[in-house]
Design goal:
The complex is a heterodimer of chains A (260) and B (261).
Chain A lengths: L2 H26 L10 H10 L1 H35 L1 H16 L2 H11 L3 H26 L3 H9 L4 H39 L8 H10 L3 H30 L11
Chain B lengths: L1 E11 L5 E11 L3 E5 L6 H9 L6 E6 L2 E2 L10 E4 L11 H11 L4 H14 L15 H13 L5 E5 L7 H18 L2 E6 L2 H7 L2 E6 L4 E7 L8 H4 L2 H26 L1
Parallel strand pairs in B: 3-8, 3-9, 6-7, 7-8
Antiparallel strand pairs in B: 1-2, 1-4, 4-5, 9-10
Helix pairs in contact in B: 2-3, 2-4, 3-4, 6-8
Classes of the chains: A mainly alpha (260), B alpha/beta (261).
Amino acid sequence: MNQSAARVVYPLTVALVLIGLWQGLVVALEIPAFLVPSPARVAQTLVADAGLLFGALYNTLRITLFSFLAAVVVGVLIAATFVQSRVIETAFFPYAVLLQVTPIVAIAPLIIIWVKDPIASLVICATLVALFPIISNTTLGLRSVNPGLLAYFRMNRAGRMQLLFRLRVPSALPYFFGGLRISSGLALIGAVVAEFVAGTGGTGTGLAYQILQAGYQLNIPRMFAALVLITVAGVLLFVLMSALSRWALGGWHESETSHE
Amino acid sequence: MPAVEVLSVEKTYPNGTQALLPVNLTVREGEFITLLGPSGCGKSTLLKMVAGLLEPSDGRLLLWRKPVDQVESSGHRLSFVFQEATLMPWANVLANVRLPLDLAKVPKSTSEPRVRQALKMVGLERFEDNLPRQLSGGMQMRVSIARGLVTEPTLLLMDEPFGALDEITRNRLDSDLLDLWQANGLTVIFVTHSITEAVYLSNRVIVMAARPGRIVEEVIIDEPYPRTADFRVSQRFANYAKQLQDSLLRASGAQEDEALA
């Protein structure tokens, strides 16, 4: 079997075996659906509540996407500012770290109070979660220029813009894409967490809200169904970012070349 | 006309390390000069000062009678080839060789024919679409040399360019380099720590010693070009190599005596 087929088939086999085990155990031990629903039951719920759940997924993904884009734009701008001078970086980097280590659940209520528009408040929360990997990876990347190449550019009297676009940006791309992969997942987590905090007082339409509601109603199959959607969405985001990275770095960077 | 004049140039680092005691050296136009010596003898430092990559602590450096930073006003141009190929991994061979022209904002219509010609000179015309990682170390070095030649330099400065290559590849590149040097009427200053490479390539070998870095001797390799593979195994070659080796040993021996005294 070739490498790329194996990358799909092996994990899929694991999933099928686990789901089979789960189904078998739930049926054999007669576990009630309000404790652990069987995979078949979860699938049924997914179909039965499709309108509700996929609508909620759409809302969550929309917030994820907005905040991911915002994190990329803001993160890249901050990183570009950091590499302009060590003084700026030294002065501000600790605050970027501060942003990273502050739990979003602790500040989300504040943001939700301060920002009137519920969507905007959720996007801000999720952006804050997704921002740091972009800042730190892009900064590292923009600084990780081969010193020999840098000397060569300098010797040829390359201007500031030439240095940035012909040398620093391409050198930073592998790091940047690494940041994207982490950040896309964090944007989703941030969106879900923010929805949780906003709860019924928020927009009330995301997947987190559905999980909360299903919890109140002891509708455990629906809870699982929503969870499955979040997980699948996260995996798809990761796969998408990996594909993007492979497309952009194809061939030249060690991380994206096939192991021959 | 002298291409390069080094007039009691010295380099002392701010921490007091003497990288190079005052040295004098004149390189005639069209000459192939080798700086030979152990690590720490200041040979790379000297080369980088000639290239304007490092400032001398004292002394004067002239290229075609002009200060280094005004060499272009003399109608001459220098190229520097590093120890490593230092290619852009994301760009293909063509774009890598075109880089100095791109940086000088030469339009592509003018630069592409020159790039193709430079690639032809180093025998890589069939590889212009390849990425550096798809090439062997020797081929990457050829790309680096093509990038050095594409600006049509008159002075080529090479800092141990083939040091990381195996001997067979190195010998072939040495011999190709001599062809390029002759075909283009270049002046070359070549840094190496290989005695055989120095003998094979040079008109003149400048023997240097370390701690502190200095020039100890000049050896003229009085042997016509083109130099064949047979020259490498001739008695005359061995004699030159022995002369250089003795000179290097004397220099390091003298220093040990000093240390004992």
